[in-house]
Description:
Layout: H1 35-66, H2 69-94, H3 99-123, H4 128-145, H5 147-156, H6 162-190, H7 194-211, H8 248-264, H9 267-296, H10 301-328, H11 331-348, H12 355-383, H13 389-401, H14 407-418, H15 420-426, H16 428-440, H17 442-445, H18 453-460
Organism: Actinotignum schaalii FB123-CNA-2
Membrane topology: Multi-pass membrane protein
GO cellular component, one term: plasma membrane
Amino acid sequence: MSSTANAPVTVTDQVADQDRAPASEREPATIWASREYRAWFAGDLLQDLGAGIAMFAFPLVCLAVTGSPVHAGTVGFFQGAGTLLGILPGGVLADRHNRRTLRLVSSGLGVLAQLALVALLLTGTANVANLAALAFLDRLRNSLLSPASNSMLKQVVPGRLLPNAVAANQGRDAAVTLATGPAGGALLAIHLYVPALAQIIGQLASMGATLLMRGDYRPGRSCGDECSGRAGCPENSENSASSISTGRISRALAEFNESLRWIWDRTAVRVLLICACLLNLGWAGMMMSVTLGLADRGVEPALIGLLATALGCGALAGAVVAAKVVARVASGVLIVAGFLMCAGVVALVPFLPGLGWIGAVYALMGLIIPAVNAAVMGLVTLMTPNELMGRVGSVSQFFSSGAAAFAPALAGWGIGALGWELTQSAFAFPTALAAFAMLASAQVRRIPASPQWENYLEETGALSARD
């Protein structure tokens, strides 16, 4: 979803004369004591605020322009295709190039995409074809370049602070969700192009925050001496993709295969990704079918946006205690409970009598989302070698969220062919399957609370790729 995960990650405080110092030389006491983390966090927050407003508004803009949920679904299909095509190459880019530079390029191209949307809407030339083309290109841009930002996190904070950083990010996402729905609805009431202006402002502000970062964010720079001779290190390993001399395509495929092997060797990660794929498809599809269905019935965008506010309120409350919950409750228990709860919510929503009830259930679900995401993302981030962060993150996103990228298309087409209620009910099947599969996984159920993660990973051999 955001880009709830959107799934699913150490440079510390640095002064001008030690921009390229190894992360291990200086460690902040807390994440907020790190100047680099504050700049990274601000950049992500500002970008997400603008993007969240635009993402909430864009399906409603398409519906207003085309007048049909089916046509809005068609635009959503190309949007999903752009997302899916860029995810895997994006991970390779993040592990090859300076991640700070990639984040700056992403923001700059995002500004250009939204300027094009504003021009189409102001001139009255927007239609299904050009909206679909623009949505495809913008999502391709995002999925190609956004892995760089999350891949920076392990270089920004030390490993012991990763659970806190991930929990803080969940709080940020909750605050964004809280604000973007009502803001998107209010801005739509002014004009269809105004939400795009909000994203332009967010992207520009994010560029400013990223420019304040002074660390060295080239992949592998924090490997240090331990990288020598290790499979997968881009600097020194003879077996790594960087030593292959058969051309760029061969190197990219070798790097991609390396991340696949890394994931395949870890049963818990495989199970989490497969179940997340099913769960995210059902959850995103249910939410989009609710949004499009209400809009098609004439409900004001501002009222629809209050559903996102309800979800954000619950998530914000959950984010306040997420770090403590992850530290005290076994992550396996937390993850299974979250999946079962989500499956129950998706199954219940089609039978709720009104907007208020849907909002209440959204708020209830929001309470557990931050802790579940913090457990999953924190664990996977901890076990992933720095030089594989981009590729593992992209492969994880591809499998966990790839199907969900087409949720807007499935929701729009489903409403046109099957009706609102039946379309919502259909999305309950993948979430139920995901919940029961997660419940059946002994590997996931055994995951302990965060203070015991490293011992658990060593005992299960999940850290072997680092040796």
